[in-house]
């Protein structure tokens, strides 16, 4: 919780004013309290009127209760907020049952889909538009067309628009019951719902299914596979995140991403496995057409990746990033990949970078660092 002594210092003097608004103090705000309503309201009023608007653009995480949620969400514009936790917030089922539009989007894994989300949706019989984007973990079966039709669509007779993007991870599947793409999608097709899907298996006992409505209208997509289908074009996606722990991502996978997501602005890669199919610039048969290009990519996050992926994206004979201005990467890997910032192959992709974020910031930089990143 933001301490009273901290937020009461705003306006006392310039030094304390800067301290109270410093991002290290204000990136996470917890306004849940055990005080009585009267005391809580007094403190909350002061916080909202004197402080909140001055630190709103620093806040990344907010934890609110029923007494604070309305005032806090109305007063601020939280441009960096990525996590909102609601504590002791009663659900008014009468209000829920009258909703016409509902959207639930989460990029964190949940095991509460059947216990919490499905029962909540069943109270929304009057919905006209529903958006679900979820990553569901450790379920007994895939969330497929049969489930979406029988457990959601059939309960919502007024529903006109259903946008979904659902991954079911780590599902134990008997080999004799492996499902096909046709079986997953058939119930939706019969309802005239256009959709796509794919499945992937680490082992037979560890499967995943990704099912999504088409055309894909959401701006972000996450995948946990290197077997993404090559038949779809996702013109609305601006943010793509790929993570995998049991297989590496090869050059062709990234070429596939560039084709499927032509307007991508942000790309995250999470994979610590070395590539098996390394392509060298001097390799016989290497062609100019093998070079991948992400013309609109401005943000690249390789902070959870191994050395091969740093080379894959920064060396211009593998990948061209003419618009890159923000890079997240482990400093030591960047150092090794660029040979202490002397490797010419990475200069072009680093030339326009204005912001760089390291897992651990070094105390000093080699003399060539500024030449590599002249706009920092």
TrEMBL record:
Family matches, as InterPro entries? LRR_dom_sf
**Superkingdom per UniProt:** Eukaryota
The protein here is known as: Uncharacterized protein
Source organism (scientific name): Adineta steineri
């Amino acid at each position: 919780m933001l301490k009273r002594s901290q937020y009461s210092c705003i306006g006392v003097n310039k030094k304390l004013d800067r301290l109270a608004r410093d991002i290290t103090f204000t990136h996470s705000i917890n306004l849940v309290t055990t005080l009585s309503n009267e005391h809580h309201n007094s403190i909350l009023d002061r916080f909202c009127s004197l402080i909140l608007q001055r630190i709103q653009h620093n806040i990344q995480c907010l934890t609110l209760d029923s007494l604070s949620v309305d005032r806090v969400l109305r007063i601020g514009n939280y441009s960096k907020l990525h996590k909102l936790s609601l504590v002791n917030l009663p659900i008014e089922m009468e209000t829920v049952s009258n909703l016409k539009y509902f959207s639930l989007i989460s990029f964190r894994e949940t095991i509460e889909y059947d216990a919490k989300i499905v029962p909540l949706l069943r109270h929304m019989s009057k919905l006209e538009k529903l958006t679900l984007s979820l990553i569901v973990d450790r379920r007994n079966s895939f969330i497929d067309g049969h489930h979406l039709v029988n457990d959601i669509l059939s309960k919502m007779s007024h529903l006109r628009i259903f946008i979904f993007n659902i991954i079911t991870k780590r599902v134990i599947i008997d080999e004799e019951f492996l499902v096909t793409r046709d079986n997953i999608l058939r119930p939706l097709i019969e309802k005239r719902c256009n959709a796509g899907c794919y499945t992937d298996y680490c082992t037979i006992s560890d499967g995943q299914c990704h099912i999504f409505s088409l055309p894909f209208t959401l701006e972000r997509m996450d995948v946990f596979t290197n077997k993404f289908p090559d038949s779809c074009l996702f013109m609305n996606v601006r943010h793509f995140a790929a993570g995998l722990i049991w297989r590496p991502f090869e050059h062709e996978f990234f070429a596939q991403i560039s084709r499927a997501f032509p307007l991508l602005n942000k790309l995250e890669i999470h994979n610590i496995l070395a590539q098996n199919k390394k392509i060298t610039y001097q390799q016989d048969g290497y062609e100019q057409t093998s070079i991948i290009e992400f013309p609109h990519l401005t943000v690249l996050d390789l902070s959870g990746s191994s050395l091969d992926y740093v080379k894959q994206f920064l060396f211009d004979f593998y990948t061209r990033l003419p618009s890159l201005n923000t890079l997240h990467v482990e400093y030591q890997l960047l150092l090794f990949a660029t040979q202490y910032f002397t490797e010419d192959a990475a200069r072009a992709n680093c030339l326009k970078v204005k912001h760089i974020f390291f897992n651990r910031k070094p105390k000093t930089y080699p003399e060539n660092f500024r030449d590599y990143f002249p706009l920092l």
